[in-house]
User: Fold this.
Amino acid sequence: MRTALLASLRHHTRRYVASGLAVVIGVAFIVVTGILTGATREGLTADVGAPVAGVDTVATVDDPQAAQRLLDEAAARDVPALGLGYAMEPVARDGVQLAASADIGEASLTPSLQWQELEEGRFPATAGEALADVNAAKRTDVGVGDVLRVGTGAAAREVEVVGMVDSPAALGASLYVPWQVLSGFDGTLWIDAVAWGGSADLAREIAPAAELEPATDWVAERQAEIARGVDVIAIMALIFVVIALVVAVLVIANTFAILFAQRQRDFALLRCVGVTRRQLRRSVRVEALLLGIVASLTGVAGGIALGFGAVALVRHWFADMGTASLPPVWLAAGFTVGVLVTVAAAWMPTRSVTRVAPLAALRPDTGVDVRSAAGRGRLTLAALALVGGVTLLVLAVLGHQVPLMLAGGTAAFIGVLLFGPVLVPALIRLVGRLPGAGPVRRLATGNAVRNPRRTATTAASLLIGVTLTTAVLTGLASSRTALDVEMDASYPLDATVTAATDPLETGLADRATALDGVDDAVTLEGTFARAADVRLPLVGVGTRPAVVRGPDDLVPRDGQLLLPIALVEELPKHLADQVYDDATLTLRVAGRPITLDTVVDDGWGRSGLVSAATLARIDPDPQPVALWVRAADGADPEDLQGDLAALAGASGAALEGGYGNRSWVDLQVDVLTGAVVSLLGIAIAISLVGIGNTLGLSVLERGRENALLRALGLTRRQLRRAMAVEGLLLAGVASLLGAALGLAFARVGVEVMVQPAVEHVVFAVPVVQVAAVVGVAALAGLAACVLPARRAARVAPAAGLALE
Amino acid sequence: MTTTSTTPPQTSVAASARGLTRTYGAADRAVHALRGVDLDLPAGRFTAIMGPSGSGKSTLMHCLAGLDPATSGAVTVAGRELAGLDDTALTLFRREHIGFVFQAFNLLPMLTAGQNILLPLELAGREVDRALYDQVVSVLGLTTRLGHLPSELSGGQQQRVAIARALVTRPAIVFADEPTGNLDSEASAEVLGHLRRSVRELGMTVVMVTHELDAAAYADDVVVIHDGAITAHLVEPSADVLVAALRGRNR
Ligand SMILES: Nc1ncnc2c1ncn2[C@@H]1O[C@H](COP(=O)(O)OP(=O)(O)O)[C@@H](O)[C@H]1O
Ligand SMILES: [Mg+2]
Assistant:
């Protein structure tokens, strides 16, 4: 038996290549995930301990006030201590804003706590000096010697950059300033731990609630926390690994089914010469096992190479990526899963092998004509799964139940897959019968539907990838539309420049409109009012400016003042109370007092809004006070910010707006979309290997038939085209069906998951993206036929007819 | 070569070979399947090519039919020199002018008998000549079988479908390679009878490769081949003459 086994393996090696490839891709996917996870975790946890390396104790506090007391006392008593946290403040240079909100950490003046890695310059020696992070400074071109203005209004401070540092991801900030400066930003400062160089008693005395622990424990906790975060990402990636493996199982099972069908006569012959059923079954299972081992080893090796390459590539852009290492658990898991998947996928087909009757070898060989059809049991099961799945989906929509939706979706999808042998050939026939069919298309259609089961399995593998991709794309597009509506309401203006003390220059709107990232801009007239000693710009709005987004017009009623919460917070207590209690505010304009009904709202920068009529009443001679900007679609938020900052110039005007947040949210959705699509792309790639494989094996099977057709007058081109059309029909029908299912699932998903979370849900179909998925899948199916088609066309008509 | 005493009764030639050789494999292990064949196949006759197994019968037929390129020499079919035609031109030529019947794997399993018969016309995008189709189908006794799949037909019926398919394009010449090789003697007789009828009643030209004396008895002429060379071209030979010619080599 061993001779026969080895001979058959040698003989069929090339036929196993494709199913091997499916395993290789799946295993490599696992290994790459492991290597990337390891490197990410190593990179993120590497320097977590650096800030506390100079002390033995870390004091953790719940109350930021307590942290501040600890640091203030430490500074006063000359105890070494470092705040672990940051403030978020705007940073400007020469009157031009560099960042609307930069993270600012503490730079210690104590040498033992100067933990950052110095790249250039020196550490600060006095309160007026600062460190800048090299990566954060790249964009803004900040260097040693620059004087930066940090913070807003009266709290703003100037510091000189004396050193450039490279800081780790976990605790890094863009700018580091000494405590004396940092403590001034108490509005945005958040510190929840202090590296404590003093005695434990002293710490307890200052902040009784502080929790003291050895620095090493604190570091270990932080590292564990980061590792958990990375693991969550790894688990997400594993979901896609599982999807890819399911597809691989289909491809492998199909390959084995086809190969065994083609070898029926060999098996029958073996049975004739005395091989028992069990021996035969064992032998084909050993074949599967060997294939699994070889493919998994290849996958592990390929995964290692890819993983190391990917890590090197990521390190290129993302300095905090760690170094790649071999993760033994992942390697072992990848190998084991690969072998198990192969053997499991081959199990069902190997059972059919043993049903071969020895007599089959004695029947005259009339050419291989493997017919396979759907059994009645299968169809019953399909109907049950479909009906049950749809019922669950309906219930899920009614009750907004995600688990019900997942169960229903899976059941319905399995139902469709089980219906495949009936459904897919019927659809292929339908498409094949579209007007304009010639002999080539008729031949291709006939070939494509000849083995309904085989066709269905091949289509199923592609169906999975396309359905999921379409569903995810549509779901994300619908979420994005819903988010856009919310963003429009929360951020009616993309960017605003609001005068602080002096009016804006004239012609600013034209200059702003001329900017690349600006779609439209308007200047609004206004005046400056005083509330106690707070100087308050008032903007007059007559009709809804074209740049405003969302449902709100930003047009106050006459006699009404719209005031942002941040401005109310700046007011002296009695005036703020007036706003909150009476909903009025008394201001002075040009020395005259005036009281306005006040509504607290937000979204247009640091100014009060009044109606145009009110403005005319309180100041007959208004001046330009605010510039409101609508960003162009896809404008880079940082460029826009920089350009507007340059326009606003040294006037001290304040820059605000929602565009940064809006594009950040957009970017998140884009990144998510890209990640999901490329991860699902792996499953689609495997299924395309499967299509090529099915066609390739069919070519071997149809060798005689193709030779006959060639002898009867089918040209080489026609034969190649027939193969291409067959692949196109298969992939096209599978991806169209997948897109339809994906849209249906997305519809349900939006109803179940987005509906309860967001008010205005629109079911948005990303037509271009879905069309691209269908087109790419169908074309890739076509590409998958190139090799089989060439092989088929190479058969000389006479050679194919020679008797074996 | 044992030349014939009489010239063939018809002068028109359906296919001819001049100095035809076919060599397989590289120089050191070359197999000379045909060594300089000169042959004229007369139109409107049923010619059998006979010889022992491995003598080059199939190779000769494949070369004559443009299925296999000649190593050297010239092949002319229906007045057309085949050398120099590229694959596509050859294919188009085949589907216009040549019909085939093979020993096995003659029919596409997913097509019915009727569809199989019409396949060459469909591939060529040609109109069906209904009168010829009906005539061919009735001459071959297939009228009631047209809707059946090959798997539902007996071996003899399958070969008759293949013959009908070869005839329905009205080719200049039909090549049949051991068309009865897989059949029992009764079915063989039936198929051979139908082949002869197609020559007699439809005026076709049929060339049949066979190694069976019984089969050759249905043919008008017999070409004898030994070891890649033609040793006799007999016109309506008697059984004795034929046996003698076949033994010719190993006297
Ligand atoms: N494709 C081929 N490659 C190599 N040798 C071949 C090939 N086809 C035929 N032959 C050889 O050519 C000789 C003639 O073969 P063939 O024409 O098939 O003989 P016949 O049909 O008379 O039995 C044989 O020796 C055979 O082995
Ligand atoms: Mg032969």
User: Anything to note?
Assistant: The radius of gyration of chain B is 18 Å. Chain B is about 35% helix and 25% strand. The interface with chain A takes residues 58, 62, 65, 67-68, 87-88, 91-92, 94-96, 100, 102-106, 108-111, 119-120, 122-125, 150-151, 155, 165, 177, 182 of chain B (CB under 8 Å). The first strand of chain B starts at residue 13 and ends at 24.
